[in-house]
Amino acid sequence: MKTIKYLVMGVMLAGFSTAAMAQEAELNAALQAIKNNAADKADVVKTAQKKNKKNPDALVAIGRAFYEAQDTAQARTFALLADEAAKHKCAPAFILLGDIEAFANEGGKAAGYYNQATYTDPKDPAGYYKYALVYRKISPKGAVQKLADLKAQRPDIEVDALSGHIYYLSNEFEKAREAYGKVPVGKMEKNDIVEYAMASYFLGKHSEGLEKVKAGLAKEPRNAAMNRLAMFFNTELGNFDDAVKFGDALFNKSDSAKFSYLDYAYLGNAFNGLKQADKAIEQYNLALQSEFDNKAKRAGVVKQLSDAYAEKEDYINAIERYKEYLEGIEKASATDMAALGSLYTQHASKLTDPVAKKEAFTQADGVYAGLAEKYENAVEYANFMRARVNAQMDPDSKQGLAKPYYDKLIELIAPKAEKDASDKARLVEAYRYNIAYYFIVKEDKAQAKEFANKLIAIDPDNEVAKQILGVK
After folding, report:
1. Running DSSP on this structure, what letter comes out for residue 212?
2. Per-residue confidence band for 9, with pLDDT thresholds at 50, 70 and 90
């Protein structure tokens, strides 16, 4: 009897196995037909559906295949069939419905379906992950809270890296940094390391970002994003030799690297830091051959190029590039304009030909005149600089070229009830000029003494004033 019983059971099991295999074969045929958009797709899918009408997993698989083929209407149909077959307790069906809504840019509806998936199967992380990623556009805080709910259900699953990613995508860099900071570097994916480092970069935490990038490069030395960030961080930290080393790694030893103007500009900054102006200029010129998404960024590189030319005392090119910079920015500030005057003055100081020297000083004077005219709060500074420039064009003061500007400076500063150190220094310079002008050029001792009295009133130990007044 036992033998007969086992034979009967064997036949039954063999039949069951054959039926299951047939179902699986029909399902696989349907999935392949959908993927290949076969001519008999409809018939093959219909057969698989009939055989699996009570199998939620199979119905979701068919729906997923339609979704991947971008047939969202059929995908929705099979997702609903799967949900019905599971008596409305099919988490994968809700996830598929959420994906369909997300594909249609219906984030709110997608989040709703993903949320249903988490309630249907609280231990499955898929619904939590997808909810968090779609809901982060609505509320990053709410998205991260959902991940905390997952952690409560599944303490074995780490959620901090995904929390960091969500905050990073939402430009909440401090929160991204805090979340990523809870993840050991050894457990971070390369994208996690890059985002953690970028968040640190935007927050100015260069040492911290460099530490993480170095850990990442120990595992992936040819990673372009990490080599780039290592160059950025080292440049910001003043580690210019290391910055150049990582710049070489980025440009010559990284996989699938694509370069932007910022890469060349940073390497230029590193060379500039090493006082290697020619190499810096080469990099800035490469940066200027790249694409820019706005004029202001390009103008910024032009200014860096001007600075590099000034570093090697090539003032002709420095001035030309700086004028290009001024033309490229939306609105030049008083400081921007003043810097051009300074370049002309530095240029003049290096010239030996008197005609060229005078021309450079004249250009500087013109810049400061325009500065006073354009910016009311820069009038005092502009007159001070015009006085100095004209004094250099008239070193023996015989023409009194600087006098109108020193006199204007006295007019502006002397009446102030409170004078800071800068005010006093400028007044001293203006009074000393007038003392020398009246005493030596005009031989007007009375006027010279008048200015000497004014000078000693604000600078009692001034030796020039003492000599004129005969004070010991």
Report:
1. H
2. very low
